[in-house]
Model the fold of this input.
Amino acid sequence: MSLKAVFLDFSGVIIDDAAINQELVADILLSENLRADQDEYIQYCRGRSDRACIKGILANRGRILPDEYINKLLQTKNQGYRQKIDSLAELPLAPHLAEFLTQLKEQNLAVGLVTGATRSEVEYILNRAKLAQYFDLIVAGDDVTQSKPEPEAYLLAARNLNLSPAECLAIEDNPIGIEAAKRAKIQVVGISNIYPLHMLQRQANWTVDDFREIELDRVNRVLSQAG
Done:
C-alpha cells in the first residue's frame, strides 16, 4: 500500500474558529432560555458535528426536539457563522496551510475535507480563502448520519475516492476526530492547534505542531511496509 489521499478536518485544522463556534452555540442556548457551560460544550461539541453538538447539549438539559426544530437552530448557527466571519479583517486560517495543500497536489495526492461542520460553512470558507480548488471531495456533517467519533465520514470519503482506508492519511486536531479515523483504519496525524502535543500523542500515529512538520515520505514508507 502507498499513500494516495490525505483527509483534513476543518475546524481546528483548516481554520481556527473554535471561539466563534462556541459563542454561536451559547447564543442558541440563550435563545432557548439556557445558559452555556464550558465543560458541557467540550463534552458534547468539540470534534463532533454541529447537529450532534446541539442535540447532545439539549438532550442533556432534558430537551428532546424533532429534527425539523434542530434544522432551524442549525440554520441560525450557519447565518451567525457567516456574519462572524464577515466581521473579521482576516480569516484565521492555519499557518502554512496553502503551502501544505500545494505540496499534496505536487505529489499527486487526492485531498479531502472530512468534517462535522455543515457543507455551507465549509464551502463558504474555502471559496473565500481561494482554497476550494485544492480539494477533490468534501464530506460534511450533513452528508452522514453519525458524527465523529463514529468512522462513517472517513469511510465514506475513502469509498468516494475508490480507495482503501489503508491508502489514506487523516489530519486531526482533537481526540474525537483521531478516534474516528482510527476506527476507520486510517492512520492519523495529530496537529496540536487546540490540544497539547502530549495529549494527542496518546492516540495519533504521528503528532506535529505545524503542517511543515508532516513528513509525507515517512508516512508513505510506513504505509508501504504495513501493506
Q: What stands out?
A: The first helix runs from residue 18 to 31.
